[in-house]
Amino acid sequence: MKVLVSDPLSEQGLTLLKEHFTVDLLTGLSEDDLIEKMPEYDALVIRSGTQVTSKVIEASINMKIIGRAGVGVDNVDVEAATQKGIIVVNAPEGNMLSAAEHTIAMMMSLARNIPQANESLKSKKWERSKFMGVEVNGKTLGVIGLGRIGAEVAKRAQGLNMVVLAYDPFVSDERAKEMGVRMMSVRDIVKVADFITVHTPLTKETRNIIDAEEFSLMKRNARIINCARGGIINEDALAHALNNDIIAGAAIDVFVKEPPFESSLLDCKNLIATPHLGASTEEAQVNVAVSVAEEVVSVLQGGAAKNAINIPSVKPELMTMLAPYIKLAETMSNACAQLLGKNYEKIGISYYGDIAEKDTRPVTVAAVKGMLQVALGSAVNYVNANSLAKSRQVEVVESKSESKEEFSSTIMVQITIGQEKASMVGTVIGGKGKIIRINQEQVDIIPSGYMIVAKHINKPNVIGPCCILLGKNNINISGMQVGRASIGGTTIMALNVDSEVPDPILEEMRSVEGIIDAKLIKL
Ligand code: NAD
Ligand code: MLT
Known about the structure:
Blueprint: E1 2-5, H1 11-20, E2 22-25, H2 31-37, E3 43-46, H3 54-58, E4 65-68, H4 78-83, E5 87-90, H5 96-112, H6 114-122, E6 140-144, H7 148-159, E7 163-167, H8 173-178, E8 182-183, H9 186-192, E9 195-198, H10 212-217, E10 223-226, H11 235-243, E11 249-252, E12 271-273, H12 282-300, H13 316-340, E13 346-353, H14 361-376, H15 385-391, E14 395-401, E15 409-417, E16 420-429, E17 432-438, E18 441-445, E19 450-457, H16 463-472, E20 477-482, E21 490-497, H17 503-510, E22 515-522
Helix pairs in contact: 1-12, 5-7, 13-14, 14-15
Bound molecules: nicotinamide-adenine-dinucleotide and D-malate.
């Protein structure tokens, strides 16, 4: 297996990769260079320098994973990777403390004019009154985005005896209370805060979350910091606010276009700027490189990814518990799809009993994958299953109920095409999945190998001729189940067979008096 590392990566990460694979470190590649190189590699490791566009992704043949040694994946076309079945992982925690510390350093630099004073003294000036600062003690800090980094900044600011206000629509008031933080709207924060810092991802909701109107509401001595992503604060509005003394200062680590050499921001008064240094510490670079290298090793060796952006990732302990259900759901949906045909309209996955209380997203994805595989073969995988279902307008419906009957946990998969339906119910016993219902009929089947599912009228002399037919053709029956039904009603017979059954034999079985339909499925 070959791994391409296309941005500088710490030695520890490279060493780990080299223990397992052939690794090429080729930095500064253009888009065309990357397109040319992609077909050779199984994994791509990047930082923020490489732009992984849809054209780059399209050019890959064997690529299984793109690892971003850092948090933001804005330089990767995740949608295109997902469509192509490539896992995208990041390293969400490795640099959070460094980014939080950089934010605090920026805040202190703003409060005490340290960069400007340093520059002045080095040009042989002694301007003590020019660089009069402010204390942060007792001041109010507004944090927009109270995620990993925002929370670490809040904690450190409280250590400096600051009052912390925050806005984050995805953080509950209880969680904020635990952190000693008061939640408020952006509008209310900007009116009262002495310092404001943004820590959201750049999305359509957060782009320009601080714009001209917000600046107009700020106190004249307010100072603002952006160590998250360029564009969260509108750069033109910021330049106007700084140059017209609407606010007292800004410290900016990230820009809409990097490097920001053409940006008018760099010439603004009271602006402190660093060249995207939030994660630039020895510790953070080792952390993110090792984290991503571990993910690449795991995925290329057939294991799971902990920090996948485009597949549901769950805790390892839960994954162990879910593993047999994942296999069972995939097998049952694949079998249902084989029974029905190919133009599925809807797949329902229902969870009953204890499993309903768990995070079952990986099981649902597996069911979708199993269904689509009948039509799409190896083009579908756990990464692109949901997006392929969406693009083919297949509705995926998940439902949960804590009620249990015979077993502590059961799952049901039902696939629909128009009026036709095929469903299976299964459970896990001793770590092994088994099918306990096919449509309405109760069965007891360990899924493996080939199975004939024959719908028939429950009357004498139907099952016998089918078995004789298979025997005559040297096809061994290794298991047999007949669903319970009223005499004369329709039921199903499920025959496990040791080898594939050729079409003419199945056709002959369908002509046995009382057989309504007979299908061969591979479990
Ligand atoms: P995170 O996902 O842990 O936190 C982001 C928070 O933003 C979440 O709590 C989320 O609920 C919140 N959020 C999302 N939409 C929002 C909205 N509309 N309004 C308010 N809050 C919203 O991410 P993180 O690891 O804390 O990273 C935060 C940012 O810092 C990211 O943009 C990341 O790329 C950036 N970052 C920069 C550097 C650097 O070198 N400067 C280093 C690391 C991370
Ligand atoms: C990140 O998103 O992790 C940071 O911006 C740091 C980086 O890009 O290296």
